[in-house]
């Protein structure tokens, strides 16, 4: 316990040093941070609106689905660091289909999302195949695929897919009939993001699937002990391959949902690293996919609070990455201790 | 001829940091510790080296600061992995996030205060020579020194090594300190090319170094060669942009993606399977 | 100093707890210099724990360790080694990826720069004093179990150990190699070194040891001269008052269950691990596969399960196995008790409940096809844990919270849960005491009387002779059957196990 307390104090110490470096007051930062995530104003001692909460929901939407993507691979024992690339390729495919297929309305949306999902899956398959048949580590292959995805997307939006007549490296906007716009008035009520709803439903479905079906059981077993799984008649290779493909498919879907829901087009740098943040989210989630939802909310709240603190006190918002990293560390340590205590 | 010399120099400059970081990764992974925190260690080192060099005007102090920063990140990884036995990749992800945040934070604070960022670095030659010589020394050291033998033993079987009176934690701790040192040099070399630190300037180079390490089968000289091959592709990419190949003008992104695609192809088996240390990643 | 002269090791009142389990409870041990001292007891009696304390791998909670007259507290093996204590653990501490010479010098290299030439010179001298020879630059993975054992002993000499601990040294050796080992140990004892022999094979103790210490349930039961005790008395001291009822109801043999012809399988190094086996096993039979470890047993089991491919024909109740996946074979009536339960049998950090359906998860009634039937799952779990009266606090606790013996019983019970036609049990009593072993065999036999056929692979010939209806011997991938009249002759079978004629 003392060692753990030391770690926590070291983490707080690091944050204090950073605050001190930036010359910010801890009280001010904490206060603006809290205001930024709650919507409560300490100056006016009142609740000023749902804006911050809606903003957190907006930020967490892509993290939930991408987190689920990473989670599924993680359950099979694979680190899908390539979610970022799969998300980009998926988003690009979804937007392209939405722009050029000419199918309007809900059918068009479904069509676009399927395309996004398929593209993400295709982008993950090399990593799954190399892992399954050649034993190449997925961390390296997915990072390579990420780098290729960046260049591939840049090439397309600078060239063939660029909005006609525009100099900006971005596609045109998707028509409104193919958008999944948020419901509710940001500020006065809580805004509902369709992609978040889809994400939560998917997490619930994944929980049921992992814990109530033989296939889900096998996926978890193959990640937890591949050799024992072989003796239990589980095709571990099949799960290594398909979990990676499924992970890519979900990440691609996340890209499509995010672009059709929030951005409306594909522009360079639309993802501030959803794929990487979602690694942390999936690691925090614990055993059940439903844990992804609060984990994503925590990450979104940290980002949101840090942004607010930057506006209010000038403290660089990069502090959020530090906090997220430390949270991953502390939770991982806690979880290890618990599994040993039993 | 001139162009050829240019290309060689560019390869050395671009491949050097990768080779140094790959050697850092080699020490760590041959001892059994998976280290994707190379990225964060390199970034922290580049940041510390850049800032200390610029503020003191002394590039040697800067390199020293860079090395210390690299070691610090690796010690964070060591604490998590050796002290608390958490998963190596989880710890690496956390360490990278912390390093990314702290360096981004620091550079922003520095520019808010108008601190001078530009510095005049040590000559590139010193770094390049180190990047070429170190792998040779490490290769030799692994063969003939007690430290090399123990590193190999622990990396292949930590429990049996413990039974033979070799303390795996101690060996891994030293390996990670060595890893921090070398990765620190890699970061220092990286930042001394633009002569100024910019946020997230490693942009995945730590991972590329890891890929070089794996492509080199966790052996020092092949890993160094793989690192310089990445450097060569990077150098070629800049030069081949706009040059038509067989009458087709390929986009610059094609050349930029090529090394990554080749890594995939290599991992897919064209270079044969390479065998990792047997106890790699074991908690 | 109240030390009697001539004691190499003295341990007083050693107590060691692991959580709530007391592994050693006030154990005393005194070992005279220049002798071979046996330490016997059943699995889990606390022998290995006591030796690990002496070797610095564990620290005793209470008690004193006196080595060569000096009080010692070893915190690491390194410290024990420098005090002259050396240990060969049951599974050896040879690292297969390193060369023989590197394995020999590891931990005791003699300086920061390795001098292999000088080391080989000295090592060759040490080895030849016992009649050993090694190819020093060969990778240690190429060593046979016997050669690895020899390297381990040379390693102890390299470290100038005067006190040699050997934990079950003959577990992986053929009877002949075992005899040779003991001749070497006697030679070492004559040269003034002290040997502590941890074993459960009483014959070894009776033949080679001077004194013997008996442990039971972590407590010291007796320490005596070997000449003053019979092996029968020793056995009852080891087992205690527990009445051990003898099996045997004869097998009622039915139709052919498993039939192999020209059945071959490759090993990991593309060697021919199972070499053209042809045999018929019948319903109701408990068939023991005897043999020294590494003669194709692992490959045979894996090939029968579909984890490894095979050539030739295999039929289970007339149905060819060749094209079937492991899952299909499990569904078709095969069940397995894997050799290494920790690595192959359970998922350590999973709850007991989930572990209980591992391997049953695709079979009816646990699975209805698409979903896991929760009530069938609970029913299966409670049958599995009650079969051997496994004491379990909560089904949500991780399986690793059970003791090794309970985990083993759990794995055996689970394998019987699907009411298999063919049970493949690899070392089914591993980690069990005599009582537990008997329970396991009784349960296997009960199923066989209902028509199951059981293949039991074990490296313990005595156990197989005691419990099986029929014994086959595996040597170098070939399966042979003892001639009529020699079917329970352990010497004849022992000769077959090393490739000699019976």
Any chance you could write out the topology, listing elements then pairs?
The complex is a heterotrimer of chains A (342), B (283) and C (502).
Chain A: H1 2-22, H2 26-38, E1 40-41, E2 46-47, H3 51-75, H4 83-100, H5 105-134, H6 138-158, H7 194-212, H8 214-224, H9 226-231, H10 236-263, H11 274-285, H12 292-313, H13 319-341
Antiparallel strand pairs in A: 1-2
Helix pairs in contact in A: 1-13, 2-12, 3-7, 3-10, 3-11, 3-12, 4-5, 4-6, 4-10, 4-11, 5-6, 5-10, 7-8, 8-10, 11-12, 11-13, 12-13
Chain B: H1 2-30, H2 38-56, H3 59-83, H4 88-112, H5 124-144, H6 146-156, H7 158-163, H8 168-191, H9 205-215, H10 220-240, E1 244-245, E2 248-249, H11 252-270
Antiparallel strand pairs in B: 1-2
Helix pairs in contact in B: 1-5, 1-8, 1-9, 1-10, 2-3, 2-4, 2-8, 2-9, 3-4, 3-8, 5-6, 5-10, 6-8, 9-10, 9-11, 10-11
Chain C: E1 7-18, E2 21-32, E3 36-40, H1 47-54, E4 62-67, E5 70-72, H2 77-82, E6 85-88, H3 100-105, H4 116-129, H5 145-158, E7 163-167, H6 175-190, E8 194-199, H7 202-208, E9 211-216, E10 219-225, H8 231-239, E11 256-266, E12 272-282, E13 286-290, H9 297-305, E14 310-316, E15 319-320, H10 326-331, E16 334-337, H11 341-345, H12 352-356, H13 374-387, H14 404-417, E17 422-426, H15 434-449, E18 453-457, H16 461-467, E19 470-475, E20 478-480, H17 490-497
Parallel strand pairs in C: 3-8, 3-9, 6-7, 7-8, 13-18, 13-19, 16-17, 17-18
Antiparallel strand pairs in C: 1-2, 1-4, 4-5, 9-10, 11-12, 11-14, 14-15, 19-20
Helix pairs in contact in C: 4-5, 13-14, 14-15
């Amino acid at each position: 316990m003392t060692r753990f307390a030391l770690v926590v104090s070291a983490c707080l110490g690091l944050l204090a040093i950073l605050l001190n470096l930036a010359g910010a007051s801890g009280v001010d930062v904490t206060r603006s941070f809290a205001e930024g995530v709650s919507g409560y104003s300490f100056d006016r001692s009142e609740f000023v609106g749902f804006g911050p909460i809606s903003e957190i929901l907006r930020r967490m939407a892509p993290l939930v689905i991408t987190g689920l993507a990473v989670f599924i691979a993680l359950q099979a024992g694979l680190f899908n660091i390539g979610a970022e690339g799969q998300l980009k390729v998926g988003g690009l495919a979804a937007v392209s289909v939405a722009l050029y297929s000419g199918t309007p309305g809900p059918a068009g949306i479904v069509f676009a999302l399927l395309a996004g999902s398929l593209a993400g899956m295709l982008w993950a398959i090399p990593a799954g195949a190399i892992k399954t048949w050649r034993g190449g580590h997925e961390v390296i292959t997915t990072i390579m695929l990420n780098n290729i995805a960046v260049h591939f997307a840049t090439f397309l939006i600078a060239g063939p897919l660029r909005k006609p007549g525009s100099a900006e490296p971005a596609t045109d906007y998707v028509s409104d009939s193919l958008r999944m716009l948020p419901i509710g008035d940001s500020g006065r009520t809580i805004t509902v993001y369709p992609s978040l709803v889809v994400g939560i439903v998917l997490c619930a479905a994944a929980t049921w699937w992992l814990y109530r079906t033989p296939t889900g059981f096998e996926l978890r077993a193959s990640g937890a002990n591949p050799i024992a799984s072989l003796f239990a008649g589980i095709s571990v290779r099949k799960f290594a391959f398909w979990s990676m493909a499924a992970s890519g498919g979900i990440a691609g879907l996340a890209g499509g949902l995010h672009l059709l829901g929030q951005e409306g087009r594909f522009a360079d740098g639309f993802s501030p690293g959803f794929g990487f943040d979602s690694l942390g989210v999936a690691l925090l989630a614990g055993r059940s996919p439903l844990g992804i939802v609060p984990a994503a909310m925590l990450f979104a709240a940290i980002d949101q609070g840090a942004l607010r603190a930057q506006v209010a006190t000038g403290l660089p918002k990069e502090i959020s990455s530090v906090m997220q990293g430390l949270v991953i560390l502390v939770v991982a340590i806690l979880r290890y201790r618990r599994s040993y205590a039993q | 001829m001139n162009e050829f010399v240019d290309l060689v120099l560019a390869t050395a400059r671009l491949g050097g940091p990768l080779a140094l970081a790959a050697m850092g990764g080699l020490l760590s992974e041959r001892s059994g510790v998976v280290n994707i925190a190379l990225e964060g260690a390199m970034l922290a080192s580049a940041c510390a080296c850049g800032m200390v060099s610029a503020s003191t005007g002394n590039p040697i102090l800067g390199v020293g600061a860079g090395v210390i920063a690299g070691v610090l990140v690796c010690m964070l990884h060591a604490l998590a992995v050796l002290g608390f036995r958490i998963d190596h990749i989880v710890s690496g992800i956390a360490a990278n996030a912390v390093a990314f945040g702290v360096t981004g934070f620091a550079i922003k604070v520095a520019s808010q205060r108008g601190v001078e960022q530009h510095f005049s670095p040590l000559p590139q030659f010193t770094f390049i020579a180190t990047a070429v010589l170190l792998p040779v020394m490490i290769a030799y050291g692994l063969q003939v020194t007690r430290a090399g033998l123990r590193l190999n033993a622990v990396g292949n079987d930590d429990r049996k090594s413990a039974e033979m009176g070799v303390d795996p934690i101690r060996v891994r701790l030293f390996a990670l300190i060595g890893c921090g040192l070398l990765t620190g040099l890699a970061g220092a070399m990286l930042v001394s090319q633009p002569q100024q630190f910019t946020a997230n300037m490693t942009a995945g180079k730590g991972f590329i170094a890891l890929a070089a390490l794996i492509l080199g089968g966790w052996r020092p000289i092949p890993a160094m060669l793989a690192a310089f091959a990445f450097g060569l592709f990077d150098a070629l990419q800049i030069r081949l942009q706009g040059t038509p190949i067989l009458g087709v003008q390929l986009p610059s992104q094609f050349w930029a993606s090529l090394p990554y695609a080749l890594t995939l192809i290599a991992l897919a088996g064209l270079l044969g399977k390479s065998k990792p240390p047997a106890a790699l990643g074991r908690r | 100093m109240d030390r009697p002269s001539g004691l190499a090791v003295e341990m007083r009142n050693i107590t060691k707890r692991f959580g709530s389990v007391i592994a050693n409870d006030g154990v005393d041990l005194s070992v005279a210099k220049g002798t071979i001292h046996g330490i016997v007891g059943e699995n889990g009696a606390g022998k290995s724990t006591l030796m690990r304390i002496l070797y610095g791998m564990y620290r005793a909670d209470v008690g004193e360790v006196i080595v060569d007259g000096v009080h010692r507290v070893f915190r690491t093996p390194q410290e024990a080694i420098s005090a002259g204590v050396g240990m060969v653990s049951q599974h050896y501490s040879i690292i297969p990826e390193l060369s023989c010479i590197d394995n020999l010098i590891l931990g005791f290299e003699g300086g920061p720069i390795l001098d292999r030439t000088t080391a080989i010179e000295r090592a060759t001298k040490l080895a030849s004093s016992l009649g050993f020879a090694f190819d020093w630059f060969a990778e240690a993975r190429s060593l046979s179990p016997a050669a690895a054992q020899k390297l381990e002993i040379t390693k102890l000499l390299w470290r100038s150990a005067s006190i040699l601990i050997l934990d079950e040294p003959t577990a992986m050796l053929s009877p002949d190699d075992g005899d040779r080992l003991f001749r070497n140990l006697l030679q070492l004892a004559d040269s003034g070194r002290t040997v502590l022999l941890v074993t459960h094979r009483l014959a070894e103790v009776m033949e080679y040891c001077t004194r013997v210490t008996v442990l039971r349930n972590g407590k010291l039961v007796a320490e005596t001269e070997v000449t003053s005790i019979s092996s029968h008395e020793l056995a009852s001291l080891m087992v205690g008052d527990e009445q051990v009822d003898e099996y045997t109801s004869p097998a009622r043999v039915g139709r052919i269950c498993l039939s192999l012809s020209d059945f071959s399988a490759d090993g990991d190094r593309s060697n021919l691990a199972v070499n053209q086996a042809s045999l018929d096993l019948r319903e109701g039979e408990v068939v023991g596969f005897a043999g020294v470890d590494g003669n194709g047993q692992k490959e045979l089991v894996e090939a029968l399960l579909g984890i490894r491919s095979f050539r030739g024909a295999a039929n289970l109740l007339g149905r060819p196995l060749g094209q079937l996946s492991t899952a299909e074979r499990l569904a078709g009536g095969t069940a397995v008790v894997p050799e290494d339960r920790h690595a192959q049998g359970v998922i350590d950090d999973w709850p007991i409940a989930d572990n209980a359906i591992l391997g049953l998860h695709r079979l009816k009634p646990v699975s209805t096809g698409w979903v896991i039937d929760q009530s069938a799952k609970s029913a299966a779990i409670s049958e599995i844990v009650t079969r051997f009266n496994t004491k379990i606090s909560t089904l949500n606790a991780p399986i690793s919270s059970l003791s090794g013996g309970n985990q083993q019983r759990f794995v055996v019970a689970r394998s019987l849960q699907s009411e298999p036609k063919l049970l493949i049990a690899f070392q089914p009593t591993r980690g069990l005491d005599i009582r537990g072993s008997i329970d396991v065999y009784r349960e296997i036999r009960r199923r066989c009387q209902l028509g199951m056929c059981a293949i039991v692979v074990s490296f313990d010939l005595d156990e197989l002779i005691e419990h099986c209806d029929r014994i086959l011997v595996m040597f170098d991938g070939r399966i042979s059957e003892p001639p009529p009249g020699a079917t329970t002759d352990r010497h004849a079978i022992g000769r077959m196990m090393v490739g000699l004629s019976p």
